Amino acid sequence: MHPTHSMKKLLTGTAIAMLILHQDFWLWDNTNLVFGFMPVGLVYHACFSMAVAILAVLAITFAWPHELIEWATTKDEGAGTDGEAKPKDNQYKIR
Amino acid sequence: MTVLIVISIYLALLLGLGLFSGKQSRGTSKDYFVASHSIGPFLLLMSVFGTTMTAFALVGSTGKAFERGIGVYGLMASISGLVHVICFFAIGIRLWSYGMKHGFVTQIQFFRSRFDSNAIGYVLFPILVGLVIPYLLIGVIGAGKTILPVTAGAFPEAFPNANPLWTGGIPPWLSGLGICIIVLAYVFAGGSRGAAWANTFQTLVFMAMGVVAFTLIVKALGGVEQASKVPITVNENGLLVQNYGIVEQEDGSSKVEKLATPLVRGKIRDADPSLAGYQPHLGRKVLEMDYKARTPGSGELVDQSRELGVPPWMFLTYLFIPLSVGMFPHLFQHWLTARSANTFKLTLIAHPICIMVVWVPCVLIGAWATGLVPPGVPPAAVLSKMMADLVSNQVLTGLLTAGVLAAIMSSLDSQFLCLGTMFTNDIVLHKVGQDRFTDKQTIWIARGFIIGIVALTYVLSLWAANKNVFDLAVWCFSGFAMLTPLVFAALYWKRATTAGAFASIIVGTLTWIIFFVLAGGSEYTVGPGIMPVTFCVLASTVAMIVVSLATKPPSEATLNKFFG
Q1: Residue-number span of the structural domain to which A54 is assigned
Q2: A69 domain-assigned
Q3: What is the DSSP string of B460-526?
Q4: CA of A4 to nearest chain B CA: how many angstroms apart?
Q5: A13 reaches B (C-beta below 8 A)
Q6: I need a labelling partner for B403 at 20 to 30 A (CA). Which of B142, B286, B312, B418 fits?
Q7: Which of B96, B316, B425 sits opposite A94 (nearest CB)?
Q8: Are B398 and B5 in contact (CB under 8 A)?
Q9: Does the beta-carbon distance from B353 to A73 stay under 8 Å?
Q10: Rounded to a whole number, what is the distance in Å from the CA of A32 to chain B's nearest CA?
Q11: Does A5 lie at the interface with B, CB-CB under 8 angstroms?
Q12: Which chain B positions have a beta carbon within 8 Å of A52's beta carbon?
């Protein structure tokens, strides 16, 4: 699926919202335990880590840079179309 | 002694794996430096995660949680998950496309081309090497601090120690030397393929051993609910007391039991009565703790103080630190040389989860340790002290220590190799010409440089043996974060110019040096807790923007090459 501008904006907005939600000042002094052993501040941030993984899934699904990858892989001769790396012979190539 | 035997067997296995991967090599410099572009999604995830999570993740996170409490997870782990994913997506994939298009292998090649300047390579190289060295140092120091407590008592006559707790343990100078030699050996033999295989093996080992260590420590603490009662507590007089202690059982095992008389470990400065019953390490409230600790040299008891909790400004400005991932040389090289863009997908999704799997147990162990370990114990030794005290089975202690060493070594190898690759390609071959040396000679140039870096790291580790592993890592990350505006501008801002790039590097580096000298390499904040990295990133960003706008835009050819 090619990314649409609105989807990219939505995902960027979600990432910014997550940066704000990371500042959980409302839990600062709270030492309550969840499930009888996990401090609530730690539970919140562990859930945050899982939310980041979900954000990554959404970004891959809806904002994967197909055009950039096509540009990198199809413009010159000798490059595949599947994104497989085939370095060019230029002055930077390790022999 | 059993612990040492288990560790030795693990190191021998690792060495065997490195030598075996060396046999799989095609013998070319391309295979040695970039494994012939054959690194797939799983190896990439293990390599990226393994190299990002070093002694800092296991030893450092436990130690920092021992000092500041569970806020350390949000401070470094959860924000790293988010910022790393953003960087992998915004920087990594774009860099891969340029690596694919133009054949770049190292970041210096990329910047030389993007900013159309040879000189930028000569300016960047020493800065990158200078910043990688603290990262290597934390590995070598962390290894020493891990092995000492678990081998204490093994060789009392050969290795006496001023601190009776560590007498007879393998001293850090010896364990650091051993670790350096092992890593050097398999990097020497296997190159990037050996490093990738060793990374995968070691990352799996340290993740598995982390889970096992956590399970065993929880069991010894009497279950998770009991464990949560153990952390040091403020009493009605503002004193910090340990209510639990480790009691040796008749069968030789250890058990944590409630003490008849709580042990006073320190006091809260300006405590108010509302704090009674508060466990500072389970929250983030900022408190000052005064306590007594033994000095490492003489063993004399001296007054110390420490901040508990996390200041909100520190928590906020720590978000700049994971930006470092955008400029780590070894990650840059992975991005430029990955087999395909699809290779990144697994890393994007699994990286934050892997961070969580490793950090949550470590942070909990660090917080729990406050109720059992004296506050003066060096933070880097907390994890192994908990293992040594609570896991009475020597074979298991050996395996768990091997897990910690795996985390450490999986970072060292990629860094060593990457520095060798940059030195050979960006400095030597760039200067004398690509055809000046044979393929074999090219590999030996890299190996020679790697030996030099390992030797330098080892010598510096002796000098910095008592530095806090977490704090050193934060300084290293701050330095790389300071360079990240450079790569963002290079990738997304057509108006970014050569002069702007130089200004960004120089101003950012000077800002970093000033703060590093002021801090002496230790933890340092400005005003209400603002991390120095904030000023470093802002300074390099402003320098890039102002100088770029004041100078001539890049040529059409450069713009066409990078922006189509």
Answers
A1: 5-64
A2: no
A3: HHHHTTTS-HHHHHHHHHHHHHHHHHHHHHHHH-TT--HHHHHHHHHHHHHHHHHHHHHHTTS---B
A4: 16
A5: no
A6: B418
A7: B425
A8: yes
A9: no
A10: 8
A11: no
A12: 78, 81-82, 85, 352
Asked if B100 lies within 8 A of A31 by C-beta distance, the reply is no
Note whether B28 contacts A95, CB cutoff 8 Å.
yes
Per-residue pLDDT tens over the stretch B285-329? 999 999 988 776 666 788 889 999 999 999 999 999 999 999 998
* Angstroms from B125 CA to nearest CA on chain A: 16
In a domain, A89, yes or no: no
Residue B163 has pLDDT above 90, yes or no: no
Are residues A42 and B360, on separate chains, in Cβ contact within 8 Å? yes
Is A77 an 8 Å CB contact of chain B? no
Residue A24 lies in a domain: yes
**Three-state secondary-structure class, residue B216:** helix
Q: Can you tell me the distance from the alpha carbon of B30 to that of B193, in angstroms, rounded to the nearest whole number?
A: 11
**Any chain B CB within 8 A of the CB of A30?**
yes
What does DSSP assign to residue A27? G
Backbone phi, psi, residue B292, to 5°: -110, 145
Domain definitions of chain B by residue range: 39-223+310-563, 231-308
Q: Write the residue in A30, A33, A87 that is nearest to B37 by C-beta.
A: A87
Predicted pLDDT at B199: 75
Rounded to whole angstroms, the Cα distance separating B462 from B444 reads 27
Assigned token pair, B419: 């520095």
**Would you say A48 and B78 are in contact if contact means Cβ atoms under 8 Å apart?**
yes
* Number of domains forming the structure of chain A: 1
Q: A91 lies in a domain?
A: no
Nearest CB to A23: which of B224, B316, B564? B316
Q: Are B383 and B57 in contact (CB under 8 A)?
A: no
**Dihedral over Cα of B20, B26, B31, B35: its sign:** negative
Q: Please name the residues in contact with B287: beta carbons below 8 A apart, sequence gap of 6 or more.
A: B268, B269, B271, B275, B280, B307, B308, B309
A66 touches chain B (CB under 8 A): no
CATH topology of domain B39-223+310-563: Sodium/glucose cotransporter (1.20.1730)
Q: Lowest mean pLDDT: which of A1-5, B199-203, B251-255, B426-430?
A: A1-5
Give the Cα separation of A49 and B230 in Å (integer): 26
What spatial distance separates the first Cα and last Cα of chain A, rounded to whole Å?
37
